[in-house]
Please model this.
Amino acid sequence: MELFELSIAEAREKLDKKEISSFELTQSVFSRIDDVEKKLDAYITICREDALQAAQEADKRIASGETTPLLGIPVSVKDLICTKGVKTTCASKILKDFVPPYDASVVEALKKDGAVITGKVNMDEFAMGSSTENSAFKITRNPWDTSRIPGGSSGGSAVSVAADMCLLSLGSDTGGSIRQPASHCGVTGFKPSYGRVSRYGLVAFASSLDQIGPFTKTVEDAAIAMNTIAFHDPKDSTSYPDASPDYTSYLEKGMKGVKVGVIKEYIEAEGIDPEVSAAVKNSLEVYKSLGAEIVEVSLPHTKYAVPAYYVIAPSEASSNLARYDGVRFGFRAESEDLLEMYQETRSSGFGAEVKRRIIIGTYALSAGYYDAYYGQAQKVRTLIAEDFKKAFEKADILLSPVTPEPPFKIGEKNDDPLTMYLSDIFTISANLAGIPGISIPCGTAGGNLPVGLQLMAPAFEEGKILKAGYNFQCETAFHKNKPVL
Amino acid sequence: MTISKDEVLYVAHLARLEIHDEEMDKLASQTDDILSYVAELKKADTENVDPTAQSLSLVNRLREDEPGETLGSENAVKNSADHYDGMFVVPKVVKG
Model:
């Protein structure tokens, strides 16, 4: 077994017993990057020298008897999380040369822990997209079939973990951007509750929906990563004030008496691939065999979730992205006067999907349309959150597919943004309601393409998901499958 | 049709985006598709429903007004295309 194949838990044990060094582990990860990156294009910036230096420092700390959850562990970071002194581009031409003067709070936490940052990974521009095809720089490929998309927007994060080009990646999820690529790449992708992980230093897309979370090889590793990245941060006024629990304490066997809810509207949704349905049904059998009780629940406002999201997210984006005007940072177009500078900078700096969403959002917020679009979407958001509250009176966790179909071919849906939006149907509601969700591998479709299982729990009850996911991975081996590269 | 080409142009101007002729047809029809789709929302019965701006039930977070660390003006302007003496430099505001 190569060192780059290790999980965080396995590496932690070997590092602490001094069987391996972080330097060796990091070198192994970079040799893997050298071998497969040209086929996959997961990284935008590779930080080899800094990483090897951080690994040596981690080894010194380990030698002195210190141990922290991520000490010496190679981690990639989605390129919209600020890293001091290292370019943070958001996969956009407008931030092509942006070098943040500060670290995001999560990056500060990684560094304090002694994690080794391997580099910055690709994404859809400003996290807008479900395929990573909207990156201004490169198209990331799915390691299971390089003619297919890895999902998005955190496609680089998912691929870097699936292809062993890091042991952990931090991504962000606004409407499914962690769970959907995790599903498509066969890794574990965890979106914590809104507010659980600080957004300070996360470049804002839709501030009431954005949440940072980990991509890992196992649920156990997701719990380990949460112990480092989840804390109250006074720099983020939406950061949850209560102390975070020890997330690894939920990793215990036993599902007896746990009520697993199956969502009626999701099962009946049109266009679900039969192999995806079969994999999810099979997962229910796994939980039944573990002693869980299966109950049916209803989320009656499901049909409004995608429309509400595609009003709220673009509205917030149109406001957040107003800052890219060429004045304080990023690309600036040559121009005669200020207005021309704003227009030229934004028109040539943003890609097509970003412009489309700015226009939708600006329209939805403009005089005369505000109540019909944004106001109404916010009310529908309340209804969706109430649906979940009722469902969680009957069930401890909810189980569903992550995405209706396996990953599509690169280029297949380029001209059809609306069809692309519709594939977010199972993930979007969790963001609107602010609840946590995970994607874990549960089968295959279309040959060997991974299929993910989504588990959701009430807000700030991440432990229920981690426990259920851990139990699933103790019983099954889907998460151990590796793409052949 | 939910939105006309003129309206797309107007909204783009509000957002300080210039739409080139060759982008226009595709952008207008895609925007119209999306807006027609999200118009589905109007069918939801939201009488007596309060809007949700964000999912946490937190209200304003206050803290003592104590000075902390700052970036400093040199660091703050470093990423700007044009700056002078810790200030941002922009082209002239008024034409002429």
